[in-house]
Design a protein that fits this description.
The protein has helices at about 5-30, 45-60, 90-95, 140-160, 230-240, 265-280, 295-310; strands at about 65, 65-70, 75-80, 85, 105-110, 120-125, 165-180, 185-195, 205-210, 215-225, 240-245. By secondary structure, it is of the alpha+beta class. An eight-stranded antiparallel β-sheet has the order 1-4-5-6-10-9-8-7, with helices on both faces. α2 crosses α7 (about 295-310) and α4 (about 140-160) runs parallel beside α6.
């Protein structure tokens, strides 16, 4: 049987995704156990104390909008009023307080400070090189979804080994869409704990990406399924306000000298999503949960934001 060229390119992309996933699983298996800083406190009281301490520290250094935020040596993000940016160190502590890991790609965290805000946006920069986008015109959303489901099954073994419930992907909230003019990619999935009822809570991981010369920024919106439509404009506005500096833009790529990533857009979707779902090597924030407690942490984050960003500072703060 002869496959058309578009199908051959797609098959290669999925094959590369699988190979990279296997490499990620092997890396996770060889990695040392989490340090004490990565392990959440054991008792409920200790967990809450660490969450409060993490937010208290974040509040003291948070940059409040409107303000330009310099993102590494790559770009500037124009953050509007009503939002606050937590730098890498403090964002890492907040994520760990809720039972998550954070690697060197984490740039920071953006939270809404309004009364009704129960969302956060995780900002990462992955310096893997220039990502070719020519496979975007050939991908098939159904094939991508199945690839993600297959990868999640493998990643669930890692989740289980770390004490997290296994996950199952429900489907696209928004299938992948790539704007070749701006080099922006957007897609979203919904998921839930395996075995949950169909009427049970679902968490949405809304992903936006801005490609550049050296790699890509991801602005990952964390919210729940009931609020995703209301919160989409927040992360889309942030994505639109991110500007790469001169020499760092996608169109500044120099083929004779610059590093080219080992994957394209289709593989980027598969690898990044499964790493998030499986807590392999990325942030592991597809579902942020308080350690072994069945409360969605986006609710806890919303309450913490309101408590620490709304109240008046005490003497000495």
């Amino acid at each position: 049987m002869h496959l058309p060229p578009s199908r051959i390119r797609w098959t290669r992309a999925v094959t590369l995704t699988a190979l990279l996933l296997l490499a990620g699983l092997a890396h996770a298996a060889d990695a040392p156990p989490p340090s004490a800083a990565d392990r959440p406190p054991r008792s409920v009281a200790d967990r809450q104390a660490e969450i409060d301490a993490a937010w208290q520290e974040a509040r003291g250094v948070a940059v409040r909008g409107p303000a330009p935020i310099t993102l590494r040596d790559q770009a500037v993000l124009k953050m509007p009023a009503g939002e606050a940016f937590l730098p890498q160190t403090q964002a890492t502590r907040v994520l760990r307080a809720y039972g998550n890991t954070a690697d060197a790609s984490l740039v920071g965290m953006i939270v809404g400070t309004g009364d009704g805000d129960h969302w956060s946006v995780i900002v990462r920069f992955v310096k893997d090189g220039y990502i070719k986008d020519d496979d975007a015109k050939d991908w098939n959303a159904d094939d991508l979804l199945q690839s993600l489901r297959d990868g999640t099954e493998a990643a669930n073994r890692e989740r289980a080994s770390r004490g997290f419930p296994e996950m199952e992907i429900i489907g696209w909230v928004e299938p992948p869409a790539y704007d070749a003019a701006t080099h922006r990619l957007v897609w979203s999935l919904s998921a839930q704990d395996r075995g949950s009822s169909a009427e049970g809570p679902r968490t949405v991981n809304y992903n936006t990406y801005a490609l550049g010369r050296d790699g890509y920024f991801s602005l990952n919106l964390l919210t729940d399924s009931a609020e995703v439509e209301a919160n989409k404009p927040v992360v889309r506005a942030l994505l639109a306000s991110l500007d790469y500096g001169t020499g760092k833009r996608y169109e500044d790529f120099v083929g004779s000298t610059d590093k080219v990533a080992a994957y394209g857009l289709a593989a980027l979707i598969g690898v990044v999503a499964v790493k998030k779902i499986g807590l392999l090597a990325g942030l592991g924030i597809f579902l942020i949960k308080i350690w072994k407690v069945g409360l969605l942490a986006v609710v806890g984050v919303g309450a913490a934001i309101k408590r620490f960003f709304k109240r008046a500072p005490r003497a000495g703060e």
